[in-house]
Amino acid sequence: MDLLVVVPHPDDEVFGAGGTLIEYAERGLETGLITLTKGEAGRTLGLCDPQDLGAFRAEELRRAVEVLKIGHFELYDFPNARPAAAAEGEARGAGFEVNRGVADHPEIVDLLVQRFENLKPRAIITFPPNGINGHVDHVATSRWVSAAVAQYGGPLKLFYYAPPTPYPGHEEGYLPPTHQRIIPLHVLAQKLRAMAQHRTQALSVLGFMERSAERLAKETFHLVGYQGELQSELL
Asked: Can you tell me where the transmembrane regions are (predicted)?
């Protein structure tokens, strides 16, 4: 496999790497996605009952995967933690009050090692150690992926999502971009279609557009261990 994205939630794949996934697939490269939870602690926006949110978001993700032209897709059912700054009083799925999400499941490391050995990715994209916004699932996923890469030991590049500037309040541990990709217009249109499949995440999509509109057409990453000038291609 050429490029594998490993993230905790449905929609984590599209904001930071959607255009890259589409463009590389169109070039004939093999792309993959591993999503660790079904996002059952997110918002429902009245589109489904809270207890059905995980299944609902799984279907949203499957539709997005098709638009993103992802060749290999795995969805797991580890618990989704509630964001620390989640607004009170919103309809949310079950389970987030009694667990810390993927942080409570270190066995994910062994799972990922096995998947890396099977898929043999040339490059992996995941969240940086500070999770960008401090979300406990983002932070834990970064930790488990990094540990699995170290145990795997195979030749690969490990990339982190890397916004051009730190997320407000999360400057500590920020890693700047080493790679920047400008997304062509026809690919951007498909990326926006993929974002639109995540209907329950409409408020998150709008928030992203308000906060980081430039990142719709400019995807930036930090290559672990790289020191040098800003590059454009991951592979």
From this structure: none
Any residues with CB less than 8 A from the CB of 51 and at least 6 apart, and which? 93, 94
Structure tokens, 184: 């062509």
Cα–Cα distance between 144 and 37 in angstroms, integer?
Answer: 14
Paired tokens of 132: 């960008």
Q: Are 34 and 76 in contact (CB under 8 A)?
A: yes
pLDDT exceeds 90 at position 177: yes
pLDDT per residue as tens digits for the range 58-103: 999 999 999 999 999 999 999 999 754 444 444 444 444 446 899 9
Residue from 6, 122, 169, 8 nearest 73 by CA: 6
3-state class (DSSP) for residue 225: coil
Residues contacting residue 154 through CB under 8 Å, at least 6 positions apart = 116, 117, 120
Q: Where are the domains of the chain?
A: 3-223
> Rounded to two decimals, what is the model's pTM?
0.93
195-213 residues labelled b (16+ CB within 10 A) or e (exposed): bbbbebbeebbeebeeebe
Residue partners of 35: CB distance under 8 A and separation at least 6: 7, 8, 9, 10, 12, 13, 61, 73, 74, 75, 76
Take residue 153 and report the two structure tokens written for it. 């030991």
* Mean pLDDT estimate for the chain: 92
Backbone phi and psi for residue 163, each to the nearest 5 degrees, phi listed first = -60, 155
Cβ distance 181 to 24 under 8 Å? no
* CATH code that applies to domain 3-223: 3.40.50.10320
| Contact of 138 with 202, CB cutoff 8 Å | no
